[in-house]
Design a protein that fits this description.
single chain, alpha+beta, 3 strands, 3 helices, three-stranded antiparallel β-sheet
């Protein structure tokens, strides 16, 4: 089973809040402090080109556990599980990486706190907010 980025985001958002929080807590240790934006753009460019051309020389496995890795003559053989589905995959090269968490509410968005009405964004990524009659010229 293969998930796109937006499908995974929708799946996470549609989970009960307690399940989402448990998942995020379990994987919080995978956070890292420095993100190379240019590299991320380049990686996503590769996957976008694959989507457009219909080829798949590279794979990005999200939310996947590696159970075993075995060096073979022509690369690496991995036993992977994703959402309970276990598969054996063979690759020329394997790069393991983790995700990160940006704490926008503690930094960039902190000045907006008085106008926010909820602790989390809606599925549309909009923050629930209260309108300010004075600043919005609402009578």
């Amino acid at each position: 089973m293969r998930f796109s980025i937006s499908a995974f985001t929708s799946d996470m958002y549609n989970r009960p809040k307690a399940v989402r929080e448990a998942f995020l807590t379990e994987y919080a240790h995978t956070n890292y402090a420095v993100v190379d934006g240019d590299l991320i753009d380049q990686i996503y460019g590769v996957f976008y080109e694959q989507d457009v051309t219909g080829t798949e020389p590279h794979r990005l496995w999200r939310n996947t556990q590696v159970h075993s890795a075995l060096a073979v003559d022509d690369g690496v053989e991995l036993t992977l599980s994703q959402r309970g589905d276990v598969s054996l995959q063979r690759y020329d090269l394997v790069i393991l990486a983790t995700g990160y968490t940006r704490r926008l509410d503690d930094t960039i968005l902190s000045d907006l706190a008085p106008w926010l009405t909820a602790d989390e964004a809606e599925r549309s990524y909009q923050l629930p907010r209260r309108m300010c009659a004075k600043c919005c010229d609402i009578v």
